[in-house]
Fold this protein.
Amino acid sequence: MCGIVGYAGPNDTVEALLNGLRRLEYRGYDSAGVAVIDDTGGVSVRKKSGKLVNLEDLLKASPLEAAGTGIGHTRWATHGGPTDVNAHPHLGDDGRLAVIHNGIVENFAELRDEVTSRGAELLSETDTEVVAVLLGLETASGKDLETAFREVVQRLHGTFTLLAMHQSEPGKIVAARHHSPLVVGLGEGENFLGFDVAAFVSSTRRAVVVNEDNIAIITPDSVRITDFTGAEVDFEEYEVEWDAGAADKGGWSSFMAKEINEQPEAIANTIRGRIVDGHVEIPELTALGEDRLKEIDRIIIVACGTASYAGMVGSYAIEQWARIPVEVQLSHEFRYRDPVLTDRTMVISVSQSGETMDTLMAVKYAIERGVTTVSVCNTQSATIPRESDAAVYTHAGPEVAVASTKAFVAQITALYLLGLHLGRVRGTLSAEDEAAAVEQFETLPEKMAEAVATHEQIAQLAHWMADTRSVLFLGRHVGYPAALEGALKLKEIAYIHAEGFAAGELKHGPIALIDHGQPVFVLVPSPRTSPLMHSKVVSNIQEIRARGARVIAIVEKGDTAVLPFADDVVRIPLTDALFDPILQVVPLQWFALELSTAKGLDVDQPRNLAKSVTVE
Ligand code: M6R
């Protein structure tokens, strides 16, 4: 969703803003704009619908001479279409102040009526312009920017990261957050604001997270943080782990291709330091206290999209090792069902960004009801891990492509480690199961590298299937959520109709979809470690083949049982059945990427989608 950047300092302001916006492009957007205090001391704006390149062209045609303070925005449309007029920044106080905003102002209709009744004219359809105009009415009445800003943010309902600057106080930017993130970047004689650290990581790795309902006030030489009443708040800086290079394509054709290739390293990073003397130990869980972990009698995993599929895969392993009933709920459904929660429930949220609003709201709901909350997250110091009782970071490195890949396998890995930790502490994990799982973890990065090497074979397959209009994916047990994930990837980036099914469900309806030539990917479980499920899936393959399906089987090396019934066979390394989906999903990721590329689509930034969904 929206990207937000603020810059106060002596360097090229427009370039600092564009650089930040480029690094936030991954968030997804449909228009972009910047506002600066210009060399005449006034506020100047350039904004344009479409991609950042349109704004860059506009800036070439009509350059801005900035005097050192500016704000920049990429907008994902909510109120009003993605037009030039609706793009941010929006102006108030007769063009003397500029505002950018992420989120939704829920009481905007009421505020719009108020500002129009006070004589203001609105140019756009956005909630943000109403805020800019309201703020302008306050500054025009003689209040300084900080006072006016504090008064206005206290009147807003909904969610916001809001930045404002006024020409009467050049060099200063004020920024507030409410259920939407905000980070300050600390430079030498320059300071930054960003929706996340990507906005400034190429200039500084010193950052400060602005807490909920706080306001940051930056100038080139100072940073202050207050609450909404104006009381000063102490803050701590931290060192950003991700370096700027990690968020570059680094020679790959797309971020997604780069991130698929990074999966062996991502998994190794998730495991690193968490296996000690043959035991899985997650210090963040240890800190919760053994008694608390022993008392847990139910786990609910909350997540959205790909993260929810990782949660589904993880639920099988946690239940098996820790013998606790685990269910997975979509974050946006969770609180509306009035879930039964007790002080013995644990809610585990899974989120790459740690900022997904639906998941954040589910976690807050759980916290209010006194349950133990654990966050499995990839993004350091994001809101969800900070709000939760414990944070288990996946350490997969920045994921930029909208389609999640390395975060998915790292999330499953983290959930498995969590299941093993719980099983050990609760005494439900046998020594043999623990040793077997640890052995799997030790070889997993290597096996992942082999799975990544299926690329060439999949590229050929995709080439032959470039005109495919619909693809089905089948899996059983942990293969079922992996099938759902394969289907989601194809929908997201290749815009091809795709469905994932539990293989056993086929005869209960979906088999009617099978027609001559219908492509079906089948995730075949390991015959060595899961012979019963394997034989069932082979039967399912025969059933669909008999009805004309074109079968592409993802099988373990050495599995010959499917050969007579499959049109194509993709081989992945030998592993235990529970670990299958971590490897089986990789050819499915490549398939989606290749079909997207063949159709000439934007692999990294598919239409209508944002990397992290920060509105409900
Ligand atoms: O940042 P999160 O993991 O919370 O995001 C959740 C989903 O929005 C995300 O996984 C989405 O489904 C991906 N784009 C899928 O590739």
